[in-house]
């Protein structure tokens, strides 16, 4: 039966090796094949820069309220401009 490894455990195991631990000993302690360790390490090194990229954040309620007010003002201004040019139908 295949063993499932969560992301945190994989990262911890890979970091053990990157910090100078003996890969064979780490693999033996975690009952892991060295080939799988090196696969994880490659993936880790290939994607580690992503941790420093900004994550998109959901707008807060106050951000939404400010945007809502801006849009209401814009609709009001456009309505006034349309009314100046003739009647709205």
Written overview of the protein:
This protein has 89 residues and is mainly alpha-helical. It folds into two domains: 51 residues; 30 residues. Helix content is 65%, strand content 0%. It is built from four helices and no strands. The longest helix is centred in the last third of the chain and has 25 residues. The radius of gyration is 28 Å and the shape is rod-shaped. The protein starts with 6 loop residues before the first helix and ends with a helix. The model has no long low-confidence stretch (mean pLDDT 90). Pfam families: HTH_Tnp_1 (PF01527). It comes from Desulfomicrobium baculatum (strain DSM 4028 / VKM B-1378 / X) (Desulfovibrio baculatus).
Topology:
Elements: H1 7-18, H2 23-29, H3 34-47, H4 61-85
Compact overview of the structure:
This is Transposase IS3/IS911 family protein. 65% of the residues lie in helices and 0% in strands.
Mean pLDDT: 90
* Quaternary state of the chains: single chain
DSSP summary, beta strand count: 0
What would you call the shape? rod-shaped
| Helix vs. strand class | mainly alpha
The helix/strand order is: HHHH
Q: What distinguishing features does this structure have?
A:
89 residues, mainly alpha, 2 domains, 65% helix, 0% strand
């Amino acid at each position: 039966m295949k063993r499932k490894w969560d992301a945190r455990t994989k990262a911890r195991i890979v970091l053990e090796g990157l910090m100078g631990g003996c890969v064979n000993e780490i693999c033996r302690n975690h009952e892991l094949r060295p080939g799988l360790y090196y696969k994880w390490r490659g993936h880790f090194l290939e994607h580690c820069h992503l941790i420093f990229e900004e994550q998109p954040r959901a707008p807060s309620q106050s951000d939404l309220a400010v945007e809502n007010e801006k849009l209401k003002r814009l609709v009001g201004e456009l309505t006034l401009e349309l009314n100046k040019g003739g009647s709205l139908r």
